[in-house]
Design a protein that fits this description.
The protein has 361 residues and is α+β, with helices and mostly antiparallel strands. Helix content is 37%, strand content 17%. The N terminus is likely disordered.
């Protein structure tokens, strides 16, 4: 299919979250994905004039662990990380341990979400086949990056950033007052909403516009942390299509410069394509190696020789999702990149295992 041809009906399905899937979707950093999502929802071509004036709404990106409260109904609640259900036996991030003791209050939170949905959708029936999902960032000294302001908080927090009900992710503004600060549950709207109008057909220009807002509003001081009296930088902004907030394909994260992958071909005086790919692979793998090991832990697959493939698979998938703009900007072949990423991920993984074995001796 040529780049300027797009079947809106078929492509739209790519950006929907199936009702049976309750794990939170991964937020990408590719403008091209945002462009495809918007074109799919509008059933237009990728270069249609409607894509040149698109409104986005953003909220503060927080650095912790993704977690969700997944209600089958008021009396049936599951706790989830990004990857798995959590329980007393499997709670590597501490979310179940923190909030299962206050489950009656969480049910009240569920009631408020459902009540708000009925207010916004009079006459509609909430079908029981759909889970109600309250997704957010779980923050504590254990899981937060200590470079960000929010890591200075003494108490644990769960900051709601998305709610799904009736099979659809809801506009953040409509549920902005859903919180319960008595038990450390906040809504990300506390840090305010950001607004931008961008041209999705011009990727570089679009990113520059969004980056400028991130640098001005979040880089020096995290707006969410500031409401709690905490000083220090934030990590970035998560943007959503104003017209289609329900579709994860229309979500885009833009980080502050200090949290981007540390790689610059000019600064490193790299000339050849091979050198660029090697440097990028090393930087990209290094930046997310800890997350890869965290993933294994959450999946209850402790790092060992047997889990090498699982680790590499996660690293490759995350890089291809998050670094598309970098690959395109440097005109780096994806297959070449994947080959070197796999090699670098294997090296880091085996070195980590060897260090562990040395400590055990």
């Amino acid at each position: 299919m040529p780049d300027n041809a797009l079947d809106g009906v078929d492509m739209a399905a790519e950006f929907l979250t199936p009702s049976q899937i309750t794990l939170y979707p991964k937020v990408g950093s590719s403008v091209s994905r945002l462009q495809r999502a918007y074109a799919a929802m509008e059933s237009v071509r990728l270069n249609d004039a409607s894509l040149r004036h698109v409104e986005l709404i953003g909220t503060t990106k927080l650095h912790g662990q993704n977690a969700s409260l997944c209600f089958r109904n008021r009396n049936s609640l599951r706790y989830q990380s990004r990857y798995v259900d959590l329980s007393a036996q499997n709670d590597s991030i501490g979310f179940w341990d923190a909030y299962s003791p206050v489950e009656p209050i969480l049910r009240d939170l569920y009631d408020r979400v459902v009540h708000r949905w009925h207010q916004l959708n009079p006459g509609r029936v909430l079908e029981p086949k759909h889970n109600v999902i309250i997704a957010g960032e779980f923050l504590s000294n254990k899981v937060s990056n200590h470079k960000v302001a929010i890591a200075n908080a003494h108490d644990i927090m769960f900051v709601i950033f998305s709610i799904r009900i009736a099979g659809q992710w809801q506009p953040d503004q409509a549920y902005a007052d859903i919180d319960d600060t008595r038990i450390g549950i906040f809504h990300v709207s506390r840090g305010g909403f950001f607004h931008a109008t961008v041209d999705l057909t011009k990727h570089r220009q679009c990113l520059q516009t969004l980056q400028q807002i991130v640098d001005e509003k979040v880089d020096k001081q995290c707006p969410f942390a500031e409401t709690l009296g905490l000083k220090g930088p934030g990590e970035g902004i998560v943007w959503k299509l104003k017209k289609y907030p329900q579709h994860p394909g229309g979500w885009l994260k833009v980080k502050t410069k200090q949290f981007k992958t540390k790689w610059d071909a000019e600064e490193m005086e790299l000339k050849s394509t091979e050198e660029k790919i090697q440097a990028m692979a090393k930087a990209c793998v290094s930046a997310r190696a800890k997350q890869g090991f965290d993933y294994l832990q959450q999946m209850q697959k402790p790092a060992s020789d047997d889990q090498l493939g699982m680790f590499i698979g996660w690293i490759v998938g995350d890089i291809l999702l998050e670094e598309q703009e970098l690959l395109a900007a440097e005109r780096i072949d994806e297959d070449q990149c994947v080959k070197l990423v796999r090699r670098e991920a294997k090296r880091i993984y085996l070195e980590a295992l060897e260090k562990r074995r040395e400590l055990i001796k």
